[in-house]
Amino acid sequence: MSASSLTRDGSTPLWAQIEADLRRRLLAGEFAEGFPTDLELTTCYGVSRHTVREAIARLNLSGVLRRTRGRGTVVDRAEFEQTLGTLYSLFRSVESTGVTQTSVVLEVGVVKDDAAAGQLGLDPDADLVLLARQRLADGVPLAVDRAWLPHEVASPLLEVDWSHTALYEELARVGAPVPDQGWERLTPVVPDGPDRDLLGLEAGAPALFLERLGIHAGIAVEWRTTLIHGDRYRFVTEWSSTSPNGVRVTTADL
Amino acid sequence: MSASSLTRDGSTPLWAQIEADLRRRLLAGEFAEGFPTDLELTTCYGVSRHTVREAIARLNLSGVLRRTRGRGTVVDRAEFEQTLGTLYSLFRSVESTGVTQTSVVLEVGVVKDDAAAGQLGLDPDADLVLLARQRLADGVPLAVDRAWLPHEVASPLLEVDWSHTALYEELARVGAPVPDQGWERLTPVVPDGPDRDLLGLEAGAPALFLERLGIHAGIAVEWRTTLIHGDRYRFVTEWSSTSPNGVRVTTADL
DNA sequence: GCGGATGATTTGTCCGTGCATTATCGGAGG
DNA sequence: CCTCCGATAATGCACGGACAAATCATCCGC
Lengths: 254, 254
Hints:
By secondary structure, chain A is of the alpha+beta class. Chain A is 30% helix and 33% strand.
């Protein structure tokens, strides 16, 4: 099927092409029930089993796939979506606890912001789309979120009803680039002013300030700052000498 | 050389034994100048090149090794030590900026602490060794660090001069188990009381509270809480859809 | 009808081979 | 003395095969 697009000119390894193709099909939700077996993939792509395993190994140890001897390969969709970064996993893990998530739009429109433009690598007076939201979990304030995006890729977003939908889903829907890479920075702060009220924090209560740069195809497409209620959410990293670190989010024990 | 200890009974894969052996020799600082080539490893361990690469692949993509076509394999010792967790990398990255790190011992001794004992999986009235330190970078307060360890493994540590040496180095020196796995949890707080003064924080200033459980061979050997000066240090996580997350620490831009 | 044996399926491990790609080194030649 | 070129060495990529171990479905016997 998708095997037609494999190029054997040596420019990119076969396993990398297969991995990319599988990742794309995963994003499209193709393997909802049952991942192909090694043998199926070898015949489908026309390569040796070694090459297939080389591609799958990468997906496997980023936690996306769970392979069991004798049983087969299944997709761990939760893990897959967690590779979009800790901020994504925050909102997702909150939703997975069963609470319903809503947003109150504080501001949507075209603005100029030299700090955000600088992070995005644009001119200080470039047009940006700002989306500021108060995010609630079961009606309780969870975070205050501000996202700046380049105007040329985000202008279709100005028409969207933001009360529930997620930013990335809308980006994908209008064909705008979704970040697939980036970094996030955590700083402890004591909010004041309007943001403190939006989070429902008492005076002097701590919060986490998360800054995030989202990158797609090597160019920055999203600068975001998120102020997170510090008493209710914690960031957990697991580490071991054998496997790489992973960042998880847990709701605080209340 | 170390190839003698390979067991081929199928209980543990050859590549896993080789990986463990290489990791052990790395910890001992054995490959300071030049990592063996694939061919050398195949003859040294008596296995095929495929098996050697299977072992090395794990070390490679956790960032410990940097392999270059035509050049060979070299050890990225900074990356290697960063696999010991973000807390370890905090103190290490501070030292790598050139500042000298010192400690003021607040408390050393045998105590009972039911909270720490619970985290370590011990009886609430088990004997623990507590090591509390104020950590300074160039004389400026950096963090307040409290480590609880089981008495039976940590009792030799009671005699050590803690003003400069690192906990893990001393653990290794006396033959005690060094954590190779665990998790850390980040929470924003506003310190008060003695800890606030130890950090040199003004009233109401934020800090990061880091809790850490260190595990060796599956059993907990260290429970640690660290209060980190929030204005001076930030935690950065990089993420991408292709490679797993990693946590880094940067000193704040001052 | 139920339980156990059996065989098929699937992934894990290990071996061997060949060629391509890239970096380093040394010598030939200007 | 510098430059270019080829040999060498190292890793990367891909193929092939074989066996082991674990799971699952089926069939047989009781």
